[in-house]
Inverse folding.
């Protein structure tokens, strides 16, 4: 049986990979993917704690997060497409209208 | 205005409603020619307008003259008021009185005005006619219309002077003729001497005008009016006042009359060229010769005489002023006549002659014989206009030669001009029965009478001494006129290179457009030039019979004196009670016309015609070189004025200029410079301190903004990274703090 610590370690590893992806990569699609990675790290945590404490609320919440993630990806991709149509790019560095 | 009241007096007449046209017709002529003359292709239009307006004016004057003749003697005066020129309102005059005077733009056609208007328009017309021939060369360029327009303007001004019904109207004309004189003397304004002469005439006249103005200001202060009729009517009551107080000075009316008369005479000195203000008239010969004839001989220069006659009610009551006039007149007559003896320029001789004859007229005025003086105005106008126009013809015939030494023998070439001028010479010399005899002899007799007093010899010796001066001047007159005739018309023509005695001179020509002095033959002038000369000569011959003195009543009547009698106030004190004809008068007449004047003429003939080499004259000059030099140089009076008045005036002007430049302008420029400096400081302060502070604040803000601007990269990932850092920081404080 895999210990809770192992799972927590993997999930935090996944989360930080996601954080790094969001902060470092410049492609919007990859950023979105990294966000998904972070959400899934959270989901892994939720499920691990639910198993560890023997309750189902965690699993239910994980399902809810997956739903949200799906919605978020839909909106995010739509924005990315709209942006691409308008600006001919999906590089985050080029989207700097708020530059002071 | 007075139409209704006068129409019943003058049946079958135009009334007075066209009186204003007499002066205004020449004005219209002036406006038409002056404004459109440049564009009129044909000079005959210019001639038609100029001559037509003056001619019509003459005919109208003649018409009104005959209207006057039909009136009873006492009411021979037509009056037309056009409009109120200006309203003085209430003015305080002498004796704390108030006057409510208005000055009317009104014309008065009475005996004196009528005579003067006929003279001005009649002689004016003849001289206009002469000008059409004399100004032939000017017809080729665009100067001619200007000349004719000025002449018309002059006639308008002169008619305003003689027809005006108050002193201000006279003054308007007085200044107007001065202006026209200036314009016409300076007609060839591209020549320096003409411009200088014009300025000299104008400035000298202004000095006189100042006296004239003081005179009529005083008249207004004493009488409270400037209208002739009102003045004449109130003269007696003013003279009856015990005393008059003006400007804090109380004196008898006679004192004020003397003062007024003297001031007015100073005005007459300027306009009528009397010592000491005569100097402009000889120089005025720089103008075209018709101008000299019209303005500087026949009409304008006699306006001083007109003024004195018109205001005789003042002069009769001013014995001291009359003495002043008598003395100045005699002095002028003598000095100017002597200057005429030694001139070579034909026009200069006539100019000094004019000054001298004006002196004679003033002698008449000064002796209280106003009608005698006025009559000499008329006869002089005839013979002097004739002589001037004749000299114009001579100058033209000799191709703009004015020096008499280069003439001679013209009798053969221009008989009409010769005979006209000879007759006029007899007239001016006072040979019986030519007109000058009647007028000049009358004046001299009236002066003599002031001392003679009907055989008692009790008059002032002033009359005797001025009479002697006048007699000598008359001798000089006869001499220089005969000299002019001899040098110009007798002998042989010297201008064509034939000059056995070397009398001609070169380079003395003062005329415009002088031709080369090649051999040429003089020629008689065209009809439009000799006809006016000849007509004037006829007038000069016969004019005397208009006023035959009482002593010669078998020959005629003193029409002129009787005609003028309605405007005379009273007989001057000098002549009170002296009416009887005496053998002395006959004696002096015979002496003057048989011995005195013919003697002078014979002397001149002996000097200049009987001896074609002029050796007698030259011997005389050699014997008295200084005398000739002084007379020829006109006693250096011009130089004296130059040294005494003009140079100091110029120096004063120079000093004032320096003061103006250095002090006044210095203060102004200094103020400007100080303002400029202050402005520069203010500008600097504004730029560097005020703007500096504002800009510094802005700059500071900008630097801060630049600093913080770096934070706003606009990149989502940077923000996210900061959020992460914040989160990490929060965690750090939460768990480790």
């Amino acid at each position: 049986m895999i210990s809770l610590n192992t799972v927590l370690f993997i999930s935090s590893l996944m989360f930080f990979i996601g954080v790094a992806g969001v902060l470092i990569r410049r492609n919007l699609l990859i950023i979105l993917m990294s966000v998904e990675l972070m959400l899934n790290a959270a989901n892994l945590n939720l499920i691990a704690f639910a198993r560890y404490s023997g309750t189902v609320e965690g699993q239910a919440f994980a399902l809810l997060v997956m739903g949200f993630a799906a919605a978020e990806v839909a909106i995010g991709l739509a924005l990315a497409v709209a942006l691409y149509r308008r600006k001919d790019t999906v590089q985050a560095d080029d989207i700097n209208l708020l530059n002071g | 205005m007075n139409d209704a009241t006068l129409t019943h007096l003058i049946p079958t007449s135009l009334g007075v409603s066209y009186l204003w046209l007499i002066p205004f017709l020449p004005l219209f002529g002036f406006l038409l020619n002056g404004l459109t003359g440049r564009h009129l292709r044909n000079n005959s239009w210019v001639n038609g307008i100029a001559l037509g307006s003056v001619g019509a004016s003459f005919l109208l004057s003649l018409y009104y003259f005959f209207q006057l003749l039909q009136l009873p003697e006492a009411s021979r005066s037509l009056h037309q008021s056009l409009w109120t020129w200006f309203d003085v309102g209430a003015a305080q005059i002498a004796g704390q009185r108030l006057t409510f005077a208005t000055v009317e733009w009104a014309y008065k056609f009475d005996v004196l005005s009528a005579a003067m208007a006929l003279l001005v328009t009649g002689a004016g017309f003849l001289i206009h006619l002469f000008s059409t021939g004399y100004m032939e060369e000017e017809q080729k360029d665009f100067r001619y219309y200007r000349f004719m327009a000025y002449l018309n303007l002059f006639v308008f001004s002169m008619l305003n002077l003689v027809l005006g019904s108050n002193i201000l109207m006279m003054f308007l004309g007085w200044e107007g003729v001065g202006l026209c004189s200036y314009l016409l003397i300076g007609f060839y304004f591209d020549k320096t001497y003409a411009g200088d002469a014009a300025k000299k005439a104008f400035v000298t006249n202004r000095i006189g005008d100042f006296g004239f103005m003081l005179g009529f200001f005083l008249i207004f202060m004493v009488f409270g009016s400037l209208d002739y009729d009102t003045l004449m009517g109130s003269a007696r009551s003013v003279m009856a006042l015990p005393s008059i107080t003006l400007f804090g000075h109380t004196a008898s009316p006679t004192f004020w009359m003397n003062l007024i008369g003297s001031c007015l005479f100073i005005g007459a000195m300027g306009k009528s060229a009397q010592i000491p203000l005569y100097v402009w008239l000889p120089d005025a010969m720089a103008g075209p010769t018709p101008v000299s004839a019209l303005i500087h001989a026949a009409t304008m220069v006699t306006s001083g005489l007109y003024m004195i006659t018109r205001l005789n009610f003042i002069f009769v009551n001013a014995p001291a002023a009359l003495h002043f006039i008598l003395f100045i007149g005699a002095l002028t007559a003598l000095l100017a006549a002597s200057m005429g003896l030694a001139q070579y320029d034909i026009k200069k001789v006539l100019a000094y002659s004019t000054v001298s004859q004006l002196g004679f007229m003033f002698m008449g005025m000064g002796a209280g014989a106003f009608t005698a003086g006025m009559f000499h105005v008329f006869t002089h106008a005839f013979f002097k206009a004739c002589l001037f126009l004749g000299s114009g013809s001579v100058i033209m015939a000799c191709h703009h030669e004015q020096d008499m030494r280069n003439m001679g023998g013209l009798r053969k070439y221009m008989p009409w001009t010769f005979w006209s001028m000879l007759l006029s010479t007899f007239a001016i010399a006072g040979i019986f029965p030519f007109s000058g005899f009647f007028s000049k002899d009358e004046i001299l007799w009236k002066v003599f009478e002031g001392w003679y007093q009907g055989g008692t010899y009790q008059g002032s010796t002033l009359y005797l001494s001025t009479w002697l001066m006048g007699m000598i001047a008359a001798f000089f007159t006869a001499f220089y006129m005969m000299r002019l005739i001899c040098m110009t018309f007798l002998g042989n023509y010297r201008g064509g290179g034939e000059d056995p005695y070397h009398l001609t001179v070169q380079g003395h020509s003062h005329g415009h457009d002088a031709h080369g002095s090649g051999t040429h033959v003089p020629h008689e002038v065209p009809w439009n030039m000799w006809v006016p000369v000849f007509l004037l000569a006829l007038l000069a011959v016969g004019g005397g019979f208009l006023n035959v003195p009482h002593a010669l009543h078998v020959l005629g009547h003193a029409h002129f004196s009787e005609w003028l009698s309605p405007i005379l106030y009273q007989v001057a004190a000098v002549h009170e009670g002296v009416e009887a004809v005496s053998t002395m008068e006959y004696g002096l007449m015979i002496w003057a016309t048989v011995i005195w004047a013919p003697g002078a003429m014979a002397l001149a003939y002996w000097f200049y015609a009987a001896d074609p080499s002029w050796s007698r004259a030259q011997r005389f000059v050699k014997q008295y070189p200084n005398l000739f030099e002084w007379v020829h140089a006109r006693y250096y009076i011009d130089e004296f004025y130059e040294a005494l008045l003009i140079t100091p005036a110029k120096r004063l002007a120079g000093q004032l200029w320096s003061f103006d430049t250095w002090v006044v302008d210095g203060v102004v420029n200094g103020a400007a410079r100080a303002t400029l400096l202050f402005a520069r400081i203010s500008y600097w302060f504004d730029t560097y301190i005020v703007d500096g502070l504002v800009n510094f604040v802005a700059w500071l803000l900008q630097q801060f903004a630049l600093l913080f601007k770096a934070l706003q990269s606009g990149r989502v990932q940077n923000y996210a990274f900061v959020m992460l850092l914040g989160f990490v920081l929060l965690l750090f404080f939460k768990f480790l703090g």
Chain A has three helices and no strands. The first helix of chain A runs from residue 4 to 24. Chain A has a mean pLDDT of 90.
